[in-house]
Specification:
The complex is a heterodimer of chains A (about 350) and B (about 325).
Chain A lengths: L16 H24 L4 H24 L2 H35 L27 H32 L4 H12 L3 H17 L4 H25 L3 H9 L4 H12 L1 H15 L4 H6 L18 H11 L3 H30 L4
Chain B lengths: L1 H4 L17 H14 L1 H24 L2 H4 L3 E5 L5 E6 L2 H32 L2 H15 L3 H27 L16 H25 L3 H9 L4 H30 L2 H6 L18 H9 L4 H33 L4
Antiparallel strand pairs in B: 1-2
Helix pairs in contact in B: 3-13, 5-8, 5-10, 6-8, 7-8, 8-10, 9-10, 10-13, 12-13
Classes of the chains: A mainly alpha (about 350), B mainly alpha (about 325).
Chain lengths: ~350, ~325
């Protein structure tokens, strides 16, 4: 006798539509209860609603799972509610920050912004006057200066950790990690005590670059190390087997293969330092006029521009100016991040 | 035959077989090793130069530099130093207080969202969330500071009032006067928001490394997600998460601009976290630097040295924990 019906494989673990409907209606019910609680009791506002909604919804789902299934399932539901709460609480600030900067910042954006400096204007002037050319130029110069120093050092550190793997690899890795924790203000103080006071006796853009270098090296070194580790060992072995020296293997095979990864390291390094404020307040001074000479004279920067507009202004115009600067800074960070994602998403090699 | 006829031709000497690297490799290895030492050299130089400037202050003020809570410098009309009392006690207390609040509030949220990202989120949503959180970790502290001041302060004040209303029998939540703005509590919350993305990404990476066979074994034994996480993920990731929290602590302790913007910096030891007065070492340096004379600048260098050593210590501990527990499990 043969079966004329092939048994269909069931998937009992799949959430059924009925279960979804039950959960959905519980959540809706919790929303209604929370709204009622805000109306009736002392709880008030959005926050009161959010808190009571979370507590009631979690409680209801817990009881439902407990009655339908068992304690284990109820605890499982509890954890997933809390995990959801965690991610929501993490995301609220980022949404709030980005929307605040965009909403308040677009008022500070005007056509002349990128072509004029603040040499003849105060932060309280109408928003059409002045601009952030000096700050933009200063930031770009300082970041490029910092990059010129930290990229070679960071790359060499990464090469030491991945290619040479000397006896000191473990301690060096540890020190790079420790260096990434150096507070930015300490980096500023270090440049002050080692270079500004004894040698140059003047604040300048170059000093700013040096201070930023200290913050940039660990980011570049760590990212570059990760990227170099992604290069398959076969490539290195193939290079050596063909008779190349280690130098030729690294320069001819490993580094070209890791090119996009290294660009990512540079971009993340720039993103790390582009908004640094504290060290620049100490060592680069803050110019309001365009200064393209990094070796002498105070040099403006985007963070300083924002800082000054917030702290010395007080008028509507000053705030609009500051948020406008913040929007430009944030746009930079977004672009850099997008680039890094795009590059590191591509296949290595 | 040709071979025999050519007998007189010179046979080149065989290549010398050696394990000695070529000249180019020797140079390459030397340069890379030198470059690799850069972090060691830079950290050493930071310690050296800050000590050079600051150590005479430390030897004059001795232990009082850490315990004393006054920062007074008296100079005569020529700018010569008459009398000084320099101590960063209050600021050290403020540093720990704000960082502690950040850890207490931030770490649970970060761990929960890391759990969500690792075990609940799927597909495109997971990728987007991870990039968003990485992006948030790259936001400058300036942005957090001013957002905290202009946007977040109002809601934080509301919570502070609630805490004070219902929990004021706990000494920490009592206030001498009803001033809730710009308090260490608010600064701590802003710091918490700053460290959440960092701790989240580290915890997520650690959770991701949980051995799949153990996870599958737990599921095969009929464990729910909760039971699996409790039995496998938490014991495996505990050390790494603690390390991540320490890393967050280090960042929170060294934070300058965000604290300077949000906190009302007052030179007194303030344990009452809801009251609008406090400070931290880094923001003190920024605050006093503008008007400081040479002697005071040296004292600020000494304060920077102490901050440097503190954060170095915390980071070292964090690194130890992450690497000890992160890669191998218990």
């Amino acid at each position: 006798m043969t079966l004329d019906v092939t048994p269909k494989p069931g998937m009992p673990w799949e959430v059924t539509i009925k279960q979804r409907a039950v959960t959905g209606s519980l959540i809706a019910f919790a929303g209604a209860l929370a709204a009622a609680a805000v109306e009736m009791t002392g709880l008030s506002g959005k926050l009161g609603f959010a808190v009571s909604f979370f507590v009631i919804a979690t409680g209801l789902i817990f009881i439902q799972q407990l009655r339908m299934r068992n304690l284990q399932a109820a605890k499982d539901a509890l954890l997933s509610s809390f995990a959801m709460l965690g991610i929501v609480l993490t995301l609220i600030p980022i949404v709030s920050i980005v929307s605040t900067v965009v909403i308040k910042g677009y008022k500070g954006i005007q056509p002349g912004l990128l072509f004029k400096d603040m040499a003849l204007n105060s932060v309280n002037d109408p928003i059409q006057e002045g601009g952030l050319l000096h700050a933009l130029v200063g930031t770009v110069l300082m970041v490029l200066g910092a990059l010129a120093i930290s990229f070679p050092i960071g790359l060499l550190t990464a090469l030491y950790l991945t290619e040479i793997r000397g006896a000191l690899a473990r301690p060096i890795k540890f020190l790079v990690q420790a260096m990434s924790g150096v507070p930015s203000i300490v980096a500023g103080l270090f440049i002050l005590s080692s270079l500004v006071y004894p040698v140059t006796k003047e604040l300048s853009g170059m000093m700013g670059s040096f201070a930023l270098t200290i913050l940039m090296i660990p980011t570049i070194a760590r990212t570059a190390e990760e990227m170099l580790r992604l290069i398959p060992n076969d490539l290195r072995e193939a290079g050596v087997a063909l008779g190349a020296t280690q130098w030729r293997t690294v320069s001819g095979v490993v580094l070209p293969a890791a090119k996009s990864g290294l660009v990512t390291a540079i971009i993340l390094g720039i993103a790390r330092i582009i908004g640094e404020t504290a060290p620049l307040l100490l060592v680069s001074g803050g110019g309001d006029a365009l200064n393209v000479n990094p070796t002498s004279g105070a040099m403006g920067s985007l963070p300083y521009y924002i800082w000054k507009a917030f702290l010395t202004g007080g008028t509507e115009e000053a705030f609009a100016r500051a948020w406008g600067g913040m929007l430009v800074l944030l746009a930079f960070i977004f672009i850099l991040f997008g680039l890094a994602r795009f590059l590191s998403g591509r296949k290595v090699g | 035959m040709t071979l025999l006829e050519n007998k007189s031709a010179e046979i080149p000497a065989p290549r010398e077989i050696t394990t000695q690297p070529r000249r180019s490799d020797q140079i390459f290895r030397g340069v890379v090793t030198l470059g690799g030492m850069a972090s060691l050299v830079i950290l050493g130089l930071i310690a050296f130069f800050l000590s050079l400037k600051g150590v005479h202050i430390l030897s004059e003020e001795k232990f009082a530099f850490i315990t004393e809570s006054r920062w007074e410098v008296l100079t005569d009309e020529n700018g010569n130093l008459v009398e000084s009392t320099l101590g960063i006690g209050a600021m050290l207390v403020g540093t720990f207080l704000a960082a502690l609040i950040a850890i207490i509030v931030g770490v649970p949220i970060a761990v929960l969202s890391a759990l969500y990202l690792t075990f609940y989120a799927r597909g495109a949503a997971k990728k987007i969330l991870i990039s968003l959180i990485d992006l948030m970790a790259a936001f400058p502290s300036l942005l957090y500071g001013f957002w905290g001041f202009f946007v977040f302060m109002a809601s934080a004040e509301y919570w502070a009032k609630l805490l004070n209303k219902y929990l004021d029998f706990i000494p920490f939540f009592d206030v001498p006067a009803k001033i809730f703005e710009r308090s260490p509590f608010v600064a701590g919350l802003v710091l918490a928001i700053m460290i959440i993305p960092i701790v989240t990404s580290i915890s997520r990476e650690i959770f991701d490394q949980t051995p799949l066979d153990r996870v599958q074994a737990a599921y095969a034994l009929g464990a729910s997600k909760y039971a699996m996480i409790r039995a496998v993920v938490i014991p495996y990731g505990r050390g790494g998460v603690v390390g991540g929290a320490m890393l967050g602590l280090g960042r929170a302790m060294g934070e300058t601009v965000a604290v300077y913007t949000v906190l009302n910096i007052v030179y007194q030891v303030n344990w009452q976290v809801l009251f609008g007065a406090g400070g931290n070492v880094a923001s003190l340096i920024l605050l006093k630097f503008g008007e400081a004379g040479p002697y005071e600048v040296d004292a600020l260098m000494a304060a920077g040295l102490i901050l440097f050593i503190l954060t170095l210590f915390v980071n070292a501990l964090a690194d130890l924990l992450i690497n000890r527990f992160g890669s191998k499990g218990k």
